[in-house]
Amino acid sequence: MKALLRHSFMRQWAADWSPLRGRAFRLYFSGQAVSLLGTWMQITAQSWVVWELSHSMRAQGIVALLGAVPLVLLAPWAGAAADRFDRRKLLIVAQVAAMGLAFALALLVQTGLIQLWHVYGLSLLLGVVAAVEMPAQQAFIGDLVGMAEIRKALALNGIIVQLGRTVGPALAGWAIAHIGIAEAFWVNGVSFLAVIASLLAIRVVTSERVVSADDRPGGFDEAVRYLLAQPRLLDLLAFTTLASFFVLSNLTIYPALATVVLGGDSRTLGWLLGASGIGALIGSVLVTHLSRALPRVGWALVGCSIWAGAMILCNSFSRTLPTAMACIVATGLTVPFIFTTANGLTQMLAPPQMRGRLLSILLMVGFGLQPIAAIGVGWIGDRFGASQALFFNGCCLVLGGAAMAVRHGLLTWQVGNGTPSVAHQDEPLPAQV
After folding, report:
1. pLDDT 10s digits, 195-254
2. What stretches pass through the bilayer (predicted)?
3. CATH for 67
4. pTM for the full model?
5. Which of 62, 207, 391, 433 could form a disulfide with 316 if both were Cys (CB 3.0 to 4.6 A apart)?
């Protein structure tokens, strides 16, 4: 029986990699793997630059806010553009623009001219690029693999994101200490060439997109009305918001945690961010697979939220680097499941012609408003300390996860192995999809 169970698990785990059988997804997956490594090097290096220039967690929050404001303001246009235009071409333009901004930041740091307002301005411009790119990028993955494989493909995409989070910060910390901080930004700029090349090599993409007169900024209202009529889509949006507000905002606290609480330097920050990536990588590979096999997705989402909050609470009491890293790894175990489940089920439940707009709402509320929480947490950290800010985040996440458990129909909601059928616009989602 043990051998049979082990064989069954290995077969199921191997099936999770089935999207890589397609040439188009393999090309995009490979390019993203290289680009994301550079992206996380830049995130770490930029966080250190802001800390060196300001020694303020509030400044870290402002940088995050400026990078996310365009996600809120441009969401109606970005979602409509992802539904109406060629997503591959949109992504190529966005990658070229992001590469130029990375080179501009590298040049400012290299010449010693960098000032805090430079980082603010470049973060705002990069946010504009991300606002256009993110809905198109998430929907583009569905174009490459189809709705039957979308959750698997998003989980694989999550794996390379977490690999970047694991290796990138450690490389950035080493580069800052031994070579120079500008090199991290130069490497990120060059890494965009990999994903641009992969997009140019992809010629034929399977797309369920239907162009209509509603694929315009005004069509965003239709997507909002559709979302408000679907209780399960609202639940997915709420879980994404909880994880984004009270887990991702911890990145604002980590520079102070590394230096003030743990008495370290840039390498300590790299270890903390790397630990976050390790936990999320393990979660993407194992926890996401195991949780996806659970029929009651509501229970899994509630449990993952409460677990992450409890681990953040434990981290608020840590005073040594190994303890902090262990808590951060434990926090990251369940967070990828929340994000990939919300993203994947949103795409599966969305009408094909509305997928880009619904994803833009998910990104706008879940991630675009997150820096507001980051600024608030940064203010708590500046006033009371980094540990107290972590304690606040942990309490909010635990209480939020517990509150979601009382949502009508959530704990009985079941998701089968097949592709869920799309609900009609005027019909609520059934308890079992």
Report:
1. 899 888 887 554 544 444 444 444 677 888 888 888 888 999 999 989 888 988 887 788
2. 27-51, 57-78, 90-109, 115-132, 153-179, 185-206, 233-257, 269-290, 297-318, 324-346, 358-380, 386-406
3. 1.20.1250.20
4. 0.70
5. 391
